[in-house]
Amino acid sequence: MLIYDQIIESININTTIYNGFNYNETFFLDIETTGLSPKNSLIYLIGILYFNKEWHLKQWFLDNAGDEENMLKDFTSFLTKSNLKNVIHFNGTTFDCKFIDDHCEIYGIDFSFANINQIDLYKTFSKYKKALSLDSLKQKALEYAYGINRKDKLNAKELISKYKEYLLNKKTENEEQLLLHNFEDIINLPTLTSICSLDDLYNNKYLITNLEFVETSDSAFVTLNMENLLPIFFNGNYYFHIKPISCEQFSDNKTKTDNYEYKLLFGKIKKCTLKFFYKDYKNYYYLPNEDMAIHKSMATFIDKDKKIKATKDNCYTKVTDTFISLPDKPFLQKKYTTDDDSIFEEIKIFKDDNNSSYIRLSELNKKDFLISFINYIFK
């Protein structure tokens, strides 16, 4: 068994991800095995990232296939002595933690992850796969979505082959490749963990502390302060471009982040006539001559030959005002439906003939409206 412990000088991490966990008692975990079945496979590499005055990345490497028991004893003893009570991992609930528990049971080691609080990033990402337009939930695919570039290029089968070769020839090159893969799996977890803040945003468990509206000659933006750090790949997507203006990270001498400032860049401003669609079209009639829809309670006074039952496509009224455009792709894939009783009763979305979306510029600089709009985006 070989043990490596190195200090990591820079970690992309912040206190908000811990969901109440004490970060001094929390570690990131990833393991490498010779197969998927705990009954027929070895754990040949365990890696953790933890904070003790400085960030440490510690790896237990099985250089002798017969030494797995001692490796697990040393690993579990370290967790206990270090008072590490919380773990963050990627699919560790069904793989990493279960694998370790099963092998500890085989060797009679008194340890279980049942006694450790867990955040499984895979489960969090799974909830928002469709909403975030993710094609894959593999860790490398998510890293790519975050703009993370890895030096390691090995896949699961190649890793196992490299380890088997290492057991035969003990080549340093093989060992370095295996350690690198595990290193990058772990070191990228803090960045991926920022997705945990989406749960708070989705459930309105966040606070907007300040809002400021700024209008330019042809566009508008809003600066806001929030207590939550937004997941990195929110930037540049959907309704607006989110540009963090300042974002404090914690280190050994900064353990709390109180505020994050963002700049929300909206689209172009223009004065025009747009359509506002009523969602309950079955309660409306369309007037072809006026090119507008009216409620059935008013339609009783209109001649039958001048009205027809409204459809989704013509149940609208026209409004002339100054609007600001929104991108076509809605945030978190939220779509207008006739059963949607949510924010459309508070925020009016207007459409042009190309079905592009707009909101009234006059509403954008109202704090209550902005809070409602931001709630809508994050829901």
From TrEMBL:
Pfam families: RNase_H_2. Residues 28-193 form the YprB ribonuclease H-like domain. SUPFAM superfamilies: Ribonuclease H-like. GO terms for molecular function: nucleic acid binding. This is YprB ribonuclease H-like domain-containing protein. It comes from Eubacterium uniforme. The lineage of its organism: Bacteria, Bacillati, Bacillota, Clostridia, Eubacteriales.
